[in-house]
Amino acid sequence: MNYRLQCAPVTHPQRNRSRVEAGSAKIIGQILPFLPIPAASKPKSNIPPMTDSPIESSDSTIEISLQAGDAQHRRIRSFALRQGRFTVAQKRAMDTLWPAHGIDSVDPCDFEAIFGRSAPLVVEIGFGNGETLAQLASDQPQVNFIGIEVHRPGVAQLLLQLKERELTNVRIFCADAVEILTHCIADESLSGVNLFFPDPWPKKRHHKRRLVNPDFLNLLARKLKCGGFFHAATDWEDYARHMMNVLEQCDRLENVAGRTKFSPRPAHRALTKFERRGQKLGHGVWDLIFSRRADL
Questions:
Q1: Do 292 and 223 form a contact (C-beta atoms < 8 A)?
Q2: What are φ and ψ of residue 253, in 5° steps?
Q3: Strands 286-292 and 224-234
Q4: Which has more confidence, 207 or 242?
Q5: Which one of 59, 199, 235, 287 is the catalytic residue?
Q6: In the prediction, which pLDDT does 162 show?
Q7: Which candidate, 184, 181, 216, places its Cα nearest to that of 198?
Q8: Is 199 annotated in the active site?
Q9: Which of 68, 171, 199, 214 has the maximal Cβ count within 10 Å?
Q10: If we measure between CA atoms, which residue out of 249, 234, 227 comes closest to residue 283?
């Protein structure tokens, strides 16, 4: 009987280790450029950081820095920034007209100095494309208007209307209205605040984002002069009734139409094209007008 001797192949540990090391080095070389660099070892760059200036960025707002203890209690915002592109005319308006009408300050503002005159001061929150605000400013040249809007193409559209109408009684913040009311506007300085067709956040899980809530109304009441007005309008009945309920619970504001009653649309609030379209479809619109009580 013949036996064939089976021998294991001769290995060379040093040669195999060299092959493994070479393969590992090749793999590491391929993935190393994609690994995150620890913050402590990131090289310094001479490129300046990006800013949130309304002129430089197409979809950002001015961010108000939080106080030291506020970072743990960040407020739920009542808006979501929409991505939008400028038309050529809108981009030109931001470049050339913002310096005359825009306010970049995040500190308390001297509006008499900004407007160059003493006049009643009325704020519109969330003016959209500026159609209503431009009409109000045109109809009431004796009033100084402050517009607050986070959607930058809408800001640019208002700037174009101000130029076309040659209006000088409007200034604009491109920022969060609550932050502007808190940091930039003095208490008991406003003759009125308009809030026309705010986002209703119709889904129940989003109701916490609705702007009209007790905290907002307490802030707003502080900013209004005695007798100053708050005028809100919406085409969502559920949100209208929500606002009515919250407003009626604010002791410092009083319903000018009578308790729990909606107001007829005043003549000075012009119909927007969206509102006219909604009326043709049978949609309702609810106006709420409250004034700052003098006894509280």
A1: no
A2: -120, 145
A3: antiparallel
A4: 242
A5: 199
A6: 98
A7: 216
A8: yes
A9: 171
A10: 234
Residue 61 is encoded by which pair of tokens? 């707002």
Q: Which residue has the tokens 């038309």?
A: 87
* Phi, psi angle pair for 204, to nearest 5°: -60, -40
Look up residue 149 and give its two tokens. 């809007």
pLDDT at 72: 38
How far is the C-alpha of 159 from the C-alpha of 19, rounded, in Å?
69
- φ, ψ of residue 50 to 5 degrees: the values are -70, 145
What pLDDT, on a 0 to 100 scale, did the predictor assign at position 12? 54
Beta bridge partners of 123: 146, 193
pLDDT digit string, tens, across residues 162-181 = 999 999 999 999 999 999 99
SS3 readout for the chain: CCCCCCCCCCCCHHHHHHHHHHHHHHHHHHHHHHCCCCHHHCCCCCCCCCCCCCCCCCCCCECCCCCHHHHHHCCCCCCCCCCCCCCHHHHHHHHHCHHHHECCCCCCCCHHHHHCCCCCEEEEECCCCCHHHHHHHHHCCCCEEEEECCCHHHHHHHHHHHHHHCCCCEEEECECHHHHHHHCCCCCCEEEEEEECCCCCCCHHHHHHCCCCHHHHHHHHHHEEEEEEEEEEECCHHHHHHHHHHHHCCCCEEECCCCCCCECCCCCCCCCHHHHHHHHCCCCCEEEEEEECCCC
- Specify the pTM: 0.73
